[in-house]
């Protein structure tokens, strides 16, 4: 059986760090409120010349280096983003060109904070379907560019960055002991669109718009949706919470992460947390967290790793893979 195995990982963050203390001088907020309600201490903000494509390119180059590969070895590039450099062409095509890659194909996936989980699922389907041998999967965002910097309920939450992995086709026995993606579970429900959306777009206002969120409403749904889809991943594979070596969740809020882990019975020592340093980087948060935990040796070959995300749409999903 063909499996999609992680060969390399990489990350890229903008140069500028924005601390909670600095935000206190921009809106009516406090370090204490932000830390207590979200766990965020700082976030990175893209500066001049830094864009979703430039950050995605840097993360992609790091992932290729780690894999010992070059762009010549890649068949497909999939970028998960809601903050593309342009409405079109896709940021993936921009990154393809920046990498000097003129073969294969590249496209974007838009599922907001669940984007990376959707993109990994898509890449896995291409690989298992025999359409590609190696896929570069990137989550890259510059949410700072769609924030309303006068709205304290949203501007303190988000940050910019990019992460990438290389997925490669490998022969597996078809058992749960195989390395690679073991199951992927995706969900969406557009009935919740008003709770988290951007109030502009090419076909409505002709503007880019700003992020709007009813945070409390999103929070109310988050833990239930996340745990439901993880239970589906357990049902599909026969694994249980105690089998998981690492939970790598979307990094929206430390309280959501802790609440989900607690409900599932996954000890907090097995949860990778980067929200304190990165804030919520939407589709970039999971690959940034993967790069942090694999980079410092926490995630090791053979570990069972659970990815999960929930975000605008609503969209949500989980991927269970053996590293
Ligand atoms: O990644 C996509 C998914 N997104 C999420 O998962 C986000 C989900 N939501 C959340 O993480 C939380 O709901 C927030 C962090 C956004 C807010 O936390 P909360 O505990 O739900 O607070 P709240 O919205 O109920 O607001 C509590 C109070 C309000 O004041 P009143 O009405 O009680 O007087 C807010 O006006 O906190 C106030 N507030 C702030 N105070 C200081 C809201 N934002 C701020 C702020 N600084 N930045």
What's this entry about, in short?
The chain is α/β, with parallel strands linked by helices and 323 residues long.
Any overview of this molecule?
The structure is a single chain. This protein is an alpha/beta fold and 323 residues long. It has two domains: 2-171, Peroxisomal Thiolase, Chain A, domain 1 (3-Layer(aba) Sandwich); 180-322, Peroxisomal Thiolase, Chain A, domain 1 (3-Layer(aba) Sandwich). Helix content is 32%, strand content 26%. It contains ten helices and 13 strands. The chain has helices at residues 20-24, 31-38, 52-67, 91-98, 115-128, 152-155, 215-237, 254-264, 275-278, 285-295; strands spanning 2-12, 16-19, 42-45, 76-80, 105-109, 134-142, 160-171, 180-188, 196-198, 211-213, 246-249, 304-311, 315-322. The strands form four sheets. A five-stranded mixed beta sheet has the order 1-7-6-4-5, with helices on both faces. The longest helix is centred in the last third of the chain and has 23 residues, at 215-237. The radius of gyration is 18 Å and the shape is globular. The mean pLDDT is 98. Residues 29, 33, 37-38, 113, 152-153, 156, 215-216, 218-219, 222, 252-253, 256, 280, 311 line the site of oxa(dethia)-CoA. Pathway: Lipid metabolism; fatty acid biosynthesis. This is Beta-ketoacyl-[acyl-carrier-protein] synthase III. Residues 235-323 form the Beta-ketoacyl-[acyl-carrier-protein] synthase III C-terminal domain. InterPro entries: ACP_syn_III_C (IPR013747), ACP_syn_III_N (IPR013751), FabH (IPR004655), Thiolase-like (IPR016039).
